[in-house]
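ENTRY TYPE: paired fold submission
RECORD: A
CONTENT: sequence, then structure tokens
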Amino acid sequence: MTTDATAAAGRGTVRRLAGTLHRRPRLRLTLLLTAPLLWLAVLYLGSLAVLFVSAFWTTNSFTSQVVKVWSTDNFHELLTTPVFRQVVLRSAGVALAVTVLCALIAFPVAFYTARVARPRWRPLLVVAILTPLWASYLVKVYAWRLILSQGGLADWTLAPFGLSGPGFGLPATVLTLTYLWLPYMILPIHTALEQLPANLLDASADLGARAGRTFRSVVLPMVLPSVAAGSVFTFSLSLGDYITVQIVGGKTQLIGNLVYSNIELNLPMAAALGTVPVVVIVLYLLAIRRTGALHSL
């Protein structure tokens, strides 16, 4: 009898708790989000806080030991040294170039998968587009290294036209990063085009608009937030990348390489350099906020 009474009391407690959570959706949502938000605050925001704080420390020039003394010397050197400015501008330029190329390539691909291909083939095409994301990052980058190497597939393909491949350098870095992050641009554009009402296109045609005018006045305004949403991924991932440029970039230096090279010798300077992509990405997010892209993520 004691065991049965204990079990009945336990079931009653569970029912009361379930009833309380059912009547209070905000409490249920709070309990559901507490653990992941706490994890985010401790690991992500906490690490960013440590990054920003350590950027104001200095390094002993003789022992290379970190001296926890508040100083703005790292940021002063970052702003006044021409090499650092050039690397930051080059990194931002590479990220923008990758984003533009991804948008130009992704739009016709997404238009075909969303509006032209037969409905039964569309899911398979989307899976085919996303399949490269399942492959190893390093495998894909080294594959492009083989393609772009001297006598590789790029040289072999362009040889009949009297041309050669770009080799290793800045163009190779942009090309490889474009391949790596292209699916992140195709998917949101595909979703936007798939949800585009067909009657809008028919109405534009009935009113006498040609294909170009329909694209500018109907399609582009509705798809632009999705393009901006995809650019958040392509821009941020390209801006912080440092492995690709090490493998196919030749002597090219991006901000990620400077951070990596300063970690052992000058950790505070590496932290100061690491704040630059964070600031640039925050400014980029603020710039595209008005497009509605943040609501598409």
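RECORD: B
CONTENT: sequence, then structure tokens
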Amino acid sequence: MVSKILVPALIILLSAAAAFWMANQESVPELVKPEPPSMLVDVMRARANQVQISIEAQGSVTPRTQTVLVSEVSGLIMEVSPAFVAGGFFKKGDVLVQIDDRNYRADVKRAQASVATAQTLVTRERGLADYAESDWERAKPSLSTSRAASDLALRKPQLAEAIANLEFAEAELAKRLGDLDRTIIRAPYDGLVREKRADVGQFVAAGTQLALTFATDVAEIRLPLPDKELPYLDLSLLDQANVQADLSRSTSVPGPAVTVSAEIGGQTSLWSGHIVRTEGVFDDKSRVLYLVAQIADPYNQITNRWSAPLRIGTFVKADIKGRLVKNIIKLPRKVLQGNSNVWTVGQNDLLRLRKVSLLRSDESHIYVTSGISEGDLICLSALDNPLPGTKVRFSEND
């Protein structure tokens, strides 16, 4: 009975002693609420520089000179050049088409005979006119007259008629020789056959279209430019280019430089040239002004300087060199939030949303004039529902 009371009492006493001992040990560590993990973002440092504005446009390559070859005489096509096929290259002066010339050679011989006959008549009339004048001088003393001989007596009308007939015969000969020469159709320039419309054995009349050709010395690209982009181009250079092109007809004019690119066979090829003129009026529907760029030797026929030929009809992207602007901060377009906001990392590594003013923007960059300063850290990472004041860790990119 005593043991049943003593054992519980002993346990209670030992527990109280242990509790007293533990209460007199060192204080319990203070509980600290852990900080939430901070996001890791990529940043770049804003730098104000002198920036070359680049204007992007697109267009298709077209020939500067395109011609419909037409037969000026009628006849049977006897022969064509091996280059007289769609896609065939030719040089200036090459014979492309030969038309049957037998009838024209006969016409030339008849015209030559007419000229010879007319020359004989002129010679005879001159001789008769000389005899008539001599006869008049001999007969004049016996006639006791001071009158001058009439033109008819001196055979002047007959001589004039013979000379006129000679001139007519010579003109006819020149025409027949021209017709004979036109039976040979030569290339008017270095170029390429775009479309073949006649062939050997075909009878063609005067005015029949034989082929569609274009010159390969220069290619042109019409580039649409909205009016808002005009201030970023030096229009004075365009005006000078137009004047010089009118005066010298040269393709090397000092217009704004342009680089065009196209993807061919999985590889991007580049060609360089200049803007040489504008078309002078805005399109009524699209409200764009067309600039015309020229690329010399697009088919690599002269210089062989391009990595690939720039074929007519190719759709290209153009990068036009614009004005040089000072004290501009150029940033990747992806940092722009909405229309005019940019996330920055400020003091204590906290996110801050800044409103900026833009000079312009394109597909890849924005050009900031105010709102951020030299040396500010610009957040490059895409953030999910960010809040101003959020603490971040960052890695700076160049």
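NOTES ON RECORD B: The domain at 66-100+183-215 is CATH 2.40.50.100 (OB fold (Dihydrolipoamide Acetyltransferase, E2P)). The longest strand covers residues 315-332.
STATUS: closed
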